[in-house]
Amino acid sequence: MQLGDIADIRAGMVITRKKAMNKNEVRATYNMFTLKNIDALNEPFEQFQSNDVLSPQHFTEEGDILFRLNYPFSAVYIDKTKSGLLIPSTFAVIKVQVDFFLPEFVAWYLNTTFVKKELEKGQSGTKIPSTNKATLSSILIEQIDIEKQRNMVQLYKLHLQEKQLLKKLIEEKEKLFQAQTTKVLQGI
């Protein structure tokens, strides 16, 4: 089956239309999901000052999947901590509409090498490859047992935790190296 058969897919909001140009125009300020929030766990959200009060349809909800429409393509499952964020048009919002697919599994699946290669075939743009709703809707996804989906999601969560720990270890090693270098140079 295709992703469009199991999910509703729509683009995020074109934020330039609602951006306040000066302080007098600001009617509301919202936290906005941006590209830097894809991989970073504790990265602060960008503030968006709007010239209008925006409809709830423009914000993330728990269970949503945000898909980056420009290269490098990537998907993010929205949990409680990322709920209520403004979604810009650089992302598509995918809402799984069936109970035999876990949204977290679909997000993992969209991040696989297989899917990314399929997207490269249907990409548009020359300098910055991009994709669209029609291409996303046509992605093939095979139904597997829900328990296997849960197991894959757990494995993926462990993988992400390990990546974060390794990143933190590299940062700490860099600090240690810089401290030792400074100590040596001060001793000269």
Keywords:
globular; 4-stranded antiparallel beta sheet; 5 helices; Adenine-n6-DNA-methyltransferase TaqI, Chain A, domain 2; 15% strand; 36% helix; single chain; alpha+beta; 188 residues; 2 domains; two-stranded antiparallel ribbon
CATH topology (fold) name of the largest domain: Adenine-n6-DNA-methyltransferase TaqI, Chain A, domain 2
Strand order of the largest sheet: 1-6-4-5
| CA distance, first residue to last residue | 68 Å
CATH architecture of the largest domain: Alpha-Beta Complex
Mean pLDDT: 90
User: Which structural class is indicated by helix and strand composition?
Assistant: alpha+beta
Please give the CATH class of the largest domain.
Alpha Beta
- CATH homologous superfamily assignment of the largest domain: DNA methylase specificity domains
Name the shape in a single word: globular
Uncertain regions spanning at least 5 consecutive residues = none
Number of domains: 2
Question: What is the string of helix and strand elements?
Answer: HEEEEEEHHHH
Q: Based on DSSP secondary structure assignment, what is the total number of beta strands?
A: 6
User: Beta-strand percentage?
Assistant: 5-15%
DSSP helical segment count:
5
Radius of gyration: 20 Å
Largest sheet: 4 strands, antiparallel
Into which percent range does the helicity of residues fall?
Answer: 25-40%
